[in-house]
């Protein structure tokens, strides 16, 4: 089988061979012409330039009983989804397969189910909150243990990792990485963490699988499967990949697998169980969302460059503003993870468009008799309420700039500072973004 979405053994159509061998290899070209490079997958006789949307749930057999189109039933595989998965595999570079789901969290669920129980998931103390909540319930009671550690402290990580690998109750380890982290943009040294896990795996003759959440950067900015030796990436395509805040999607992209540290044989290719889940449990990305996502992907490189340029300029503006107590943006040399982040990124000078700022009260402000945290929160909410270009909404990665006071969203267990605002910097004219913050920070109130 050459394509994950197909259900029958197909020989490659000659059209495909010709278009593939002459295909330009640069990712900007592959994305811009996404439908044209894989015309065989979504083949129709009208020779559409834009990939057609395939809504059929079932596909007709040939006279010999086979499936000449390569598809059987839409839960097993659909041409629009198959095209998307192929393009996502190309985008990651060094990967062998992708699987698209209804949202990022459905993709996370597929990884946990495919990995199985009697395992431990090692996570950074700061990451997208939904993943911790999913591990609490239902996966905790199912037998997948979570071990939380500060992964920015490699000494602490080494101790925690040694304990996890040595634990006889742990059959294998799932290394769950997110960099930059949500919401404080902590940077994890992925190469160092993988090298450490490889050492522990050899020592204890136990295997691990590494997953990197690339939602905030996208594989365009950070290619992880090849260069960083990550096994599997997870992207909430709801964010930058889709890019227009109009679809939910999650994509897993992986490689077929490395040698086992425990047995010396090929170890744990998660593709097979994940494909099994797609076929038999569903949760797959529907064709319309796959089509919309393909459309969004075409402009990903151009969008990401503008996102990053706007964010970079805004971070410098905040860094010298008297009412900003801290800027968390890994593109700034003052960020503690700047050097590590820059060394991991695939595109020089592009550091992402997510950032967080901590807002300082002006003199005398914030003495309104409330408890300290609530006072600070009220002060920050007054500032963001004055914004006119940045919109107050959750999520990120669309063309429009958004901001969010994370502490009030995360609830009682949150450790996020009261004065922190997370920003997703969009594609508006930079001057409008800066002027918006000038007036919001400067006004009385
Ligand atoms: C870093 C990160 N990972 C995963 C997810 C979950 O993705 P989705 O909302 O598409 O399920 C999110 C959502 O905000 C996220 O920010």
Automatic annotation (TrEMBL):
InterPro entries: Cys/Met-Metab_PyrdxlP-dep_enz, Cys_met_metab_PP, PyrdxlP-dep_Trfase, PyrdxlP-dep_Trfase_major, PyrdxlP-dep_Trfase_small. One of its GO terms (cellular component) is cytoplasm. Its EC number is 4.4.1.1. Its cofactor is pyridoxal 5'-phosphate. The modification N6-(pyridoxal phosphate)lysine is found at residue 239. The keyword Flavoprotein does not apply. One of its GO terms (molecular function) is pyridoxal phosphate binding. One of its GO terms (biological process) is cysteine biosynthetic process via cystathionine. Keywords: Amino-acid biosynthesis, Cysteine biosynthesis, Pyridoxal phosphate. Pathway: Amino-acid biosynthesis; L-cysteine biosynthesis; L-cysteine from L-homocysteine and L-serine: step 2/2. PROSITE patterns: CYS_MET_METAB_PP. Belongs to the trans-sulfuration enzymes family. PANTHER family: CYSTATHIONINE GAMMA-LYASE, TRANS-SULFURATION ENZYME FAMILY MEMBER. This is cystathionine gamma-lyase.
